[in-house]
Every structure is written in structure tokens, then in C-alpha cells.
Amino acid sequence: MTYSFPIRPRRLRVSESIRSIVQENRLHPSDFVLPIFISDDDRVVEISSMPGVYRWPIDQLSNHIASCANMGIRAFALFPKISSDLKTTSGHEILNPKSLVYRAARSLKSLDSDIVLIADLALDPYTSHGQDGLLLENGYVGNDETVEVLAKASLICADAGFDWVAPSDMMDGRVAIIRKTLDQNSYLTTGIISYSAKFASSYYGPFRAAIDSSPEGQNVDKSTYQLNPANLEEAKRELRLDFEEGADMLMVKPAEPFLDIINYAKTNFDIPIAAYQVSGEYSRIMAADQLGWLDWEMCAHESLLSIKRAGATVIFSYFADKIASLL
Ligand code: PBG
């Protein structure tokens, strides 16, 4: 028997061709920023908790980036793992213009000026305690003293050829000071992608292992500056402040657990919204694939599409090169 339903939404799903015509969102290689780990080692090393992700020596980086650029990926965020004897309580290596990440940027830009290079701006790769800022005597991470260092570092980033700086520290007021510092030094086209709503997430573990930023593998507690994952109102305020301070793009991080925040940002601000699908989001999919429980390719695609559907224009993802090669 048949009913006379006037509306049958399944008519739009009858065939692959029809489904394709009505598909609302698609991934494109230029949606992505590929985060890349770099080191002073002389060989490429796989990150054990991130299968398929490597730490690259500078001299092998350009080939890797060229092959990603051939697939249509335009932007790359560099994360340095510096040797542990360069790490100090003040993290002053961040102000050494010859430090690893600045050398990498110079050499990459001299080979291909079309790629977009993003510098993650924070102290954690450089501090022995793994915090993103300077510790005061009472152990609290000092705000304004940290902002001062980040503003100085932003000039070294711009001078080394980075197109964008991405403060990932969550200190108050840093976007305004970084913008002012860049402008006063005539770096008017150097952009700021602000990690605006960055949560104190449990998904950063594999990243910290990759750049060796958690001393003795201990969990570093960043909850005096990163956001409580329970809070939406507080995230709204952080987004608004960074928008008003002059960020060119606002970022939400992690991505998939915080789709509501991405959607809020997209709906309320008229600048591009970025989302960072972080290391733990990558690792959980890859681990389940290795156990035979999930298919990484389908899950990665679904996760990235969901992040885009929620409102992200730019997606930082360790899957970027792997998914781009399939698109
Ligand atoms: C540090 C920084 C972190 C990430 C990017 N920049 C880790 C942290 O805040 O501890 C995480 C990225 C990831 O997990 O993939 N400023």
C-alpha cells in the first residue's frame, strides 16, 4: 500500500548523483592549514602517538611542503621541538632570531614565497616547565610580562617571513599589543590569527609529546588561562575581545568537541573563523582505525565536514595532507 505523503525528503537522496547535487558543504584542499612539527634532528621521526605524523628536519621540510602545495594546500603552521638544553624557565630562546622555527621560515620562504606560513606564538616550546607564559614567584603564569615577550617575538616572526602570527597563549590583551607592535614596526600586512576560544582540553596530549612540552610526560595544568570546556558565555567574551583588539581571524580550539562555539563565532563576527582539529582528535580516530573499530578515512572526512558545516572557513588539521590527496 502507499500513503499520499505530499513531502518525501528521501526523494533528494535517491541516487549518488542527486545526493551530490544537493550537497551543501564540500572539503577543498585550500580549506586547510597543515600543522608541521620541526626539529634539529637529522632524520624524519614519526610521532608515536600520532601515526602518519612526523617531525621534520629543516632540510627535508621543503620537499614535504612542496608535495602538499601540489595537492592544493596553501598554508602551514610550524611547531618547533627544540632540544631540551635550550629550554629555560623564562623560555628566552623564543627571542633568538636564529632559533629553529625562524630558520625554518627563512629557508622555506626563500624557496617558495607563495606558501602561507603561520607561526604559533607561545612560550611552551621554549619553557622548561611547559607553561605558555612566564611564571611569577607564586607559580601563577604572569600575564603582562608574557604579553611583552610575545609582542617582541612577533617581530622576529614577521622578520623571518611568517605571514601570520597565531598567539595560542590565552593571555589577556595580547592581540592589541601584538598588533600595535607589528604596526609600529611597519609590519602592516602581517596578520593575526588569534586562538581566541582555546579550551583547557584533554586532547592536547599527543601534541605535547610531539614537541616535548610536558616535563616528564606530566599533564601541565593550563586552566588559569585556557577556557573551562563547560563555558559558552566566557568563550563568547574571549572571541569578542580578540575581534575588538584587531584579530584578522578568530580561532576555536579544539574543533569537533566545540562545534557550538564555532557556530557562534561564525554567526556573530564578520571575519573568517578558524578551527583547530587538535592532536587528540587526530589520534583517537587513528587509534580506533588501528584497532579495526573505525575507518580513519571516513571518520576524518566526516569530522572535517562537520567542522566546516558548523562555520569554520579555515581548518587546522593533521589530516590535511592525507585528506587533500583523496579529494
Ligand atoms: C601551545 C599549543 C598547544 C597546541 C597548539 N599550540 C598545546 C597546549 O596548549 O598545550 C595544541 C595542538 C594540538 O594538540 O594539536 N601553545
Give a structural overview.
- The structure is a single chain.
- With 327 residues, the protein is α/β, with parallel strands linked by helices.
- It has a single domain, classed as Aldolase class I (TIM Barrel, Alpha-Beta Barrel), CATH 3.20.20.70.
- 37% of the residues lie in helices and 17% in strands.
- It is built from eleven helices and twelve strands.
- The longest helix has 17 residues, at 144-160.
- The radius of gyration is 20 Å and the shape is globular.
- The N and C termini lie far apart (43 Å).
- The model has no long low-confidence stretch (mean pLDDT 96).
- Bound molecules: ligand PBG.
- Ligand PBG binds next to α6.
Short description:
With 327 residues, the chain is α/β, with parallel strands linked by helices. The protein is built from eleven helices and twelve strands.
Question: What ligands does this structure carry?
Answer: ligand PBG
Oligomer: single chain
Which term fits the overall shape? globular
Strand order of the largest sheet: 1-4-5-8-9-10-11-12
Number of helices: 11
Low-pLDDT sequence parts? none
Average residue-wise pLDDT = 96
CATH-assigned homologous superfamily: Aldolase class I
| Structural class determined from secondary elements | alpha/beta
